[in-house]
Write a structure and sequence with these properties.
The complex is a heterotrimer.
Chain A: H1 8-18, E1 24-27, E2 32-37, H2 42-52, E3 56-64, E4 70-77, E5 86-93, E6 99-101, H3 111-121, E7 124-126, E8 159-160, E9 166-167, H4 177-183, E10 184-187, E11 199-205, E12 208-215, H5 223-230, H6 232-240, H7 247-259, H8 268-296, H9 300-321, E13 330-331, E14 334-335, H10 341-366, H11 370-376, H12 384-390, H13 395-398, H14 406-409, H15 433-460, E15 477-484, E16 487-495, H16 501-505, E17 508-514, H17 516-522, H18 524-528, H19 536-542, H20 547-550, H21 568-580
Parallel strand pairs in A: 2-5, 6-7
Antiparallel strand pairs in A: 1-2, 3-4, 4-5, 8-9, 10-11, 11-12, 13-14, 15-16, 16-17
Helix pairs in contact in A: 5-6, 6-7, 7-8, 8-9, 8-15, 8-19, 9-10, 10-15
Chain B: H1 2-37, H2 53-56, H3 63-72, H4 84-103, H5 119-139, H6 144-175, H7 180-185, H8 190-210, H9 222-225, H10 235-260, H11 271-291, H12 297-325
Chain C: H1 3-14, E1 45-47, H2 57-61, E2 67-72, E3 75-81, H3 90-94, E4 100-102, E5 119-128, E6 135-138, H4 139-152, H5 158-168, H6 173-178, H7 180-183, H8 189-195
Antiparallel strand pairs in C: 1-4, 2-3, 3-5, 5-6
Classes of the chains: A alpha+beta, B mainly alpha, C alpha+beta.
């Protein structure tokens, strides 16, 4: 397939109907349209998109352009309205007064993104409903005097210990410290029931959860900045390592985004292998998730049985790609390894042999177990309206009867064409945890069908799998979308300008990742209110969190009230010192 | 004769302590082994301090004992918020009650103190006492996890105790005796056989709750409340609690066999069959453990009352009928 | 007991005697330490000392910054620090001499960071400039560059280029530039040749 430029009629449609207030319209590759707007028009356009056209917001982010100001980008998904259309609204703010009216008032989906933009770029969305910090800790300094003027959170009350010393307590808004000690239960940052590190604060009365709040920000790694410094080729490996479980999906989304920056042709055999690897990733992720949910409700046998079957999938992955977790075969313009005909034949035999035990294990045995059903049915309800307004993605949205799937609406550079490989999108109507479980189980079975079809094609044909692009065009923008096992994954990449030295060194100007857990985690507090304490890990697990995907910026230590960054060598020296003592 | 009897009883009391510890450890190992095998895994691997090897030998069957001894070698941490006296003394009191309960249950060839005419009541009360101290200790620990775990333990205990009491006392009512030794020697007829089937089932279900076997281990749910009652316990206090669980396992299995499989606990010639019956019982416990997730406490209570109360009334009526007719 | 539970029980008992977990290392086949390593496994990169020419392509391409080049005196050391290696095989793809292969070894453990088991080291001898004495390129690099050049060059100018190469091969870049006219190796020479 060849990455094609956008149809001019689509650009015309955007100019005339969707966003006539725009100043400049540009068609990017693969049906993405970039519209430059004035900052004041952003909420008006967002409201029109969301209310009149029922579009979804994918992400909102920004780029710091030094003296040229700050560019704020809002990305909307129109793929249900017009053929695979994605509209990007860009607005330029100057550095002295980086203010613009907040879009989060219009649609709740923009809330986390705006909080993040305020913390890391210093822009000020005026009128945003929730002014607290998202990724930085609650007690990060807010005042302009200290110079670290990022954020407009309110100062928190300092509690007094019996010795009269003031200590800082992390508290959500509106809770008094004395009340917190007796009724607040912390789940996190370390808790055996929840694998990922985050803080969920629950207010309980007896066993009933009355209020919930979630705080992320414990997994910073600085991946955006690293990719911007190391370049496109090495960025493949960094993108893969954002997450361990959905590593294949990140690789495919990154490669799709970079290939959208310029015209490149990907051979057809490479597309089939890409689909094969992505679907194998999905099967192993869903089986892993099923085992984790079984473990959280206390059924260790379910955990062992599903992970035992998962091992056969991992063996196939290892034979095809060379590694179990971080595949390392994604390259820009194809793949690095080919699948030989014999390997495809043996893998096909293994997959078909696994199909029957899997069908027997998933829905009838694990899904039909009465105690499991009594723990999962009716728990963590999320209605269709809440999912739509909150911007849920992936199986969480599909279990609330909202049929969105990136593989059908906006396919990445892999073979998902329903004419060549037959598959379907699964939705359920239950809107609760049990529906999410059933959606994931049925998706795993659909994926096995896709894998079998790909392997059949690969075992009978041959061809090349790689083209070697040398130079990436300057000054272009791309959005790469993929359906990770957890939902929709978006990479937003801008390549270096022709006027700066970045073009010569072939580095991207900006790389932004928006993972599915970013959206689904924001909805967790809504699902937790009103449920039993025993159901909290179940609900959090049903959203299938991947905090590693969600936290991704650099951290600065402020414990001693001075700001410094630790380099790799400092950390190594620190860890050597600790292990010796 | 009475003097010799007294010395004999004292000797057997001293002998039962290591024997019950050993048998409890073997039952715990078999439980873990069956659970692992039914999960397509191999089972417990030998992990122990190498200094202890010459003393105790290296045998995988004693792995639960090595785990307990490892705990005794670690540093005990007592939280600042805990009420120190109750916190520290609860494990020892719990263990003491468990050992006292063991002394009143017969073993093949060793009647111990079960010849006492009220030994059934005393054994049940000792078991209750042991459980009470697994509730009081965590409450004194001052952490929210302990409090929630202890509350769940109380609710679970109230319900399992109902089934426990009804099953044992309906059999006592039918036989007309409260001494466990008479149970162990007693004979069968058709009516008591039917009663034994139903009340045996009731006792088995109550054992699930007392031994924290899924689906009734919500007081120790590690996914939700860290370690439940045992969260703030460490090192030798935790090791004492684990020892108490070993003795409790032995004690409940022994009571089950004494009451429902009578001739097996009386004379030493029945020892091989006694051990075989114990192993089969542990196998059934591990099958139930494997097949079920954990219930929420509310569901567990409902399930228990829907099942325990009708079954209990049935047992009681059969016992009444036996007593009136026979 | 409902039927899903019975089905689970039967499923479990089906595989009762063959556990899925194996002891490490797997003892499935006697005589072989690991019997389950697939063909395509990417393990520790191994560099063959004969083929490596010290061109530094692997250093520029390494994704994890694991490969480093140390030039001291007349030796060039190409070193892969295995604790940073991501086993991505970029170096294998970039090497022009195909000197790197990803072996099947995957146990990379050492008890300290300076243990030599955590490094893959290759030493190369550097060529010293005849004029100024500075080491500038590995000997094998120069030799191989000559061979590759001779394979692909236009036969019209082959002899002249071969002769020029012999003249300048032992000089470093600065000295070559300084002596270009003197040795008659300046680049405009070929223009004269083609016309004349």
């Amino acid at each position: 397939m060849i990455t094609t430029a956008t149809d001019p009629s689509l650009v015309e449609w955007v100019k005339s109907e969707a966003a006539p207030e725009g100043l400049e319209f540009r068609g990017l590759r693969e049906n993405r349209v970039l519209v430059r707007v004035k900052p004041e028009d952003l909420p008006k356009l967002a409201e029109r998109f969301v209310k009149n056209y029922n579009a979804r917001m994918i992400h909102a982010t920004g780029v710091d352009l030094q003296i040229a100001g700050i560019d704020v980008v809002y990305i909307f998904d129109f793929s249900k309205i017009k053929d695979r259309l994605v509209i990007l609204l860009e607005a330029n703010l100057n550095k002295e007064n980086p203010q613009f009216p907040s879009v989060a008032k219009v649609t709740w989906q923009a809330e986390w993104a705006e909080k993040e933009m305020r913390e890391f770029l210093g822009v000020e969305p005026v009128g945003t409903p929730d002014p607290r910090h998202q990724f930085l800790s609650f007690e990060w300094p807010n005042t302009p005097e200290t110079g670290a003027a990022l954020g407009a959170g309110k100062a928190f009350p300092k509690a007094e210990t019996p010795e009269g010393k003031a200590t800082e307590i992390l508290l959500p808004l509106g809770v008094q410290p004395q009340v917190a000690c007796s009724t607040m239960i912390p789940i996190g940052p370390y808790h055996p029931g929840v694998i990922e590190g985050q803080m969920v604060r629950l207010k309980v009365e007896g066993e009933q959860v009355v209020d919930a709040d979630i705080k992320t920000g414990f997994h910073h790694r600085g991946i955006h900045r690293l990719i911007e410094r190391r370049g496109y080729n090495k960025g493949v490996f960094l993108a893969e390592r954002v997450c361990g479980i959905c590593s294949g999906a990140h690789g495919l989304a990154y490669v799709t985004a970079v290939e959208n920056l310029f015209e490149v042709e990907v051979p057809e055999r490479a597309l089939y292998i890409r689909t094969l690897v992505a679907e194998l990733n999905r099967v192993h992720s869903h089986l892993l998730w099923l085992g984790v949910v079984a473990d959280v409700i206390g059924w260790k046998t379910g955990f062992m049985l599903t992970w035992g079957l998962r091992e056969r999938v991992m063996d196939i992955i290892e034979a095809i790609t060379g590694n179990r977790v971080n595949y390392g075969i994604w390259r820009i313009g194809g793949l690095s390894k080919d699948v030989s005909n014999e390997l495809a034949t043996t893998s096909l035999k293994t997959i078909l042999g696994m199909k029957e035990p899997l069908e027997r294990l998933l829905l009838p045995e694990v899904g039909g177990h009465p105690v499991l059903k009594s723990r999962l049915i009716g728990v963590g309800h999320l209605s269709f309206a809440e999912a739509f307004d909150g911007g849920a993605v992936g199986p969480v949205a599909r279990a609330s009867n909202w049929k969105i799937d990136v593989r059908m609406d906006n396919p990445p550079h892999a073979m998902y064409d329903p004419k060549k490989i037959s598959w379907e999108v699964i939705t359920e109507e239950g809107c609760d945890t049990y529906a999410r479980t059933v959606v994931r189980m049925r998706e795993a079975l659909v994926s096995i069908g896709i894998i079998a079809q790909c392997l059949e094609y690969l075992s009978k044909t041959s061809g090349e799998v790689r083209t070697n692009p040398k130079e990436i065009a300057a000054g272009s923008t791309a959005v790469g979308l993929n359906e990770a096992p957890r939902g929709e994954l978006a990479y937003f990449i801008k390549s270096g300008d022709a006027s700066t030295s970045e073009e010569k060194s072939n580095l991207p100007k900006c790389v932004r990742i928006r993972t599915p857990s970013y959206r689904n985690n924001a909805l967790v507090p809504f699902m937790l209110i009103g449920s039993n304490l025993a159901d909290v890990p179940v609900v959090m697990g049903s959203v299938d969190q991947c905090m590693a995907c969600t936290d991704r910026f650099e951290v600065t230590d402020t414990r001693h009230d001075n700001i410094y960054t630790m380099t790799w060598d400092d950390l190594v020296a620190l860890s050597k010192k600790r292990s010796v003592e | 004769m009475i003097m010799a009897d007294g010395y004999f009883t004292l000797a057997t009391i001293l002998l039962i302590l290591p024997v019950s510890l050993l048998l409890g450890v073997v039952y715990a190992y078999l439980f873990r082994k069956f659970v692992a095998r039914l999960q397509w895994r191999v089972g417990p691997v030998l992990v122990m301090y190498s200094d202890l090897a010459p003393l105790l030998g290296t045998s995988r069957i004693l792995q639960p004992l090595y785990d307990i001894l490892k705990l005794f070698g670690k540093q005990t941490i007592i939280p600042q918020n805990a009420r120190k006296n109750l916190f520290v003394s609860s494990p020892y009191l719990s263990l003491g009650f468990a050992i006292l309960a063991v002394l009143f249950i017969p073993f093949p060839g060793m009647p111990l103190l079960s010849t006492n005419p009220y030994s059934l009541i005393i054994a049940s009360y000792m078991i209750i006492g042991s459980i009470i101290f697994t509730i009081l200790g965590p409450v004194a620990s001052g952490s929210p996890w302990g409090v929630i775990g202890a509350r769940r333990e109380v609710e679970l205990f109230l319900v399992t105790e109902l089934g426990f009491v009804i099953s044992l006392f309906s059999m006592a009512f039918a036989r007309g005796t409260l001494s466990l030794y008479d149970f162990a020697r007693g004979g069968w007829n058709f009516a008591t056989l039917i009663l034994a089937v139903f009340s045996g089932l009731l006792l088995f279900i109550s054992m699930l709750g007392k031994l924290h076997i899924k689906p009734f281990d919500m007081s120790e749910a590690e996914a939700e409340i860290v370690a439940g009652p045992y969260t703030e316990y460490s090192a030798k206090l935790l090791g004492t609690y684990y020892l108490e669980r070993v003795f409790m396992l032995y004690g409940l299995v022994a009571i089950f066999i004494a009451v429902y499989l009578p001739p097996l606990s009386s004379a030493i010639v029945w020892l091989p069959l006694y051990l075989a019956a114990a192993v089969v019982l542990v196998l059934f416990l591990s099958i139930v453990q494997n097949l079920n997730p954990r219930y929420r406490i509310v569901n567990a209570l409902r399930w228990y009352t829907k099942l325990v109360i009708p079954l209990g009334i049935l047992c009681f009526l059969i016992a009444l009928a036996i007593r009136m007719v026979v | 007991m409902s039927s899903p539970i019975i089905k689970i029980l039967l499923d479990i008992l089906r595989n009762y005697s063959t556990p899925m977990t194996l002891k490490y290392p797997s003892t499935v086949e006697a005589g072989k330490k690991y019997s389950q390593i697939p063909e395509g496994l990417r393990g520790v990169p191994e560099r063959s000392e004969d083929k490596c020419i010290g061109c530094r392509a692997c250093y520029f391409v390494c994704s994890g910054r694991a490969t480093s080049i140390y030039d001291n005196e007349d030796k060039r050391l190409v070193e892969i620090f295995l604790f940073r290696c991501t086993f991505c095989a970029h170096c294998q793809e970039a090497c022009p001499e195909e000197a790197i292969t990803m072996s099947k070894k995957f146990e990379v453990t050492a008890s300290s960071r300076s243990d030599s088991a955590g490094f893959v080291r290759t030493n190369l001898e550097m060529l010293k400039c005849k004029n100024c004495g500075k080491p500038f390129l590995p000997k094998k690099f120069v030799k191989r560059a000559n061979e590759r050049l001779m394979e692909k060059i236009n036969p019209l100018v082959k002899d002249v280029v071969a002769a020029d190469f012999q003249k300048v091969a032992d000089y470093c870049l600065d000295c070559r530039r300084a002596r270009g006219v003197e040795l008659d190796t300046h680049t405009k020479k070929h223009v004269w040749l083609e016309v004349g």
